[in-house]
Each structure stands twice: as structure tokens, then as C-alpha cells.
Amino acid sequence: MEKEINELIAIIQSHRDKTYRKINEELVGMYFEIGKYLSTKIKAEKWGSKTIESISNNLMKAYPNLKGFNRAGLYRMVQFYEEYRDNVIVSALSRQISWSNNVVPQR
């Protein structure tokens, strides 16, 4: 019976891991898309720090339990988009690694 339990645990763990990877892929895709939107608006409409701060405040009101949508988080999304926008292969691969691996502070 122990062998069967271990096999079932392996199946559960395998699918949990796949689920986490898929969720991460979607989150990174969302961050990329938000970064693209904000980058475009910053350049085209000359949005500044106060506009991004206002957007951040409104997003945090709409989604109080979500983390990462403060002013700094939004600028990281812009930076992420601008870093990967011209490289299709890297953009696709960037969705397969965690968000924290994509936003390593630059020195």
C-alpha cells in the first residue's frame, strides 16, 4: 500500500508543479502586457511619475489583495517589457521562468 500512496503523491506533485508553472507563465505574460501598455502611454502621452502613482493607487483599490502593483512594481513591468520587447524568443522564454528571475536588480 505504501508504494501506491507514493505513486499517487508523485502524480499529485507532478500536476501541482505544472499548475504553478502555468500560473507563472500567465502572470509573466500579464506583467509583459501591462509593461507594454504603460511604456506606450509614457512615451506617447508623456505620462510621468504622478500618473503612474495614481494608476497604482487605483489598481490597489480595485485589487487590494494583489501584490506588486505599487509604483515601483509598475515601473518594473515597464522595464521588463522594454528589456524583452524586441526579442521574440527571449520574450517567450521569459514567461517560463519566475517573475523574480526576470526582475533582477541591475548594478
Q: How is the main sheet built?
A: none
**Number of helical segments with 4 or more residues:** 5
**SSE run:** HHHHH
Overall pLDDT metric = 87
- Derived from helix and strand composition plus strand pairing, the structural class reads mainly alpha
Helix and strand arrangement:
Elements lengths: L1 H43 L4 H14 L8 H14 L3 H7 L4 H4 L5
Helix pairs in contact: 1-3
Q: Describe it for me?
A:
The chain has 107 residues and is mostly helical. It contains five helices and no strands. The longest helix is centred in the first third of the chain and has 43 residues, at 2-44. The protein is elongated. The model has no long low-confidence stretch (mean pLDDT 87).
Keywords:
0% strand; 107 residues; 5 helices; mainly alpha; single chain
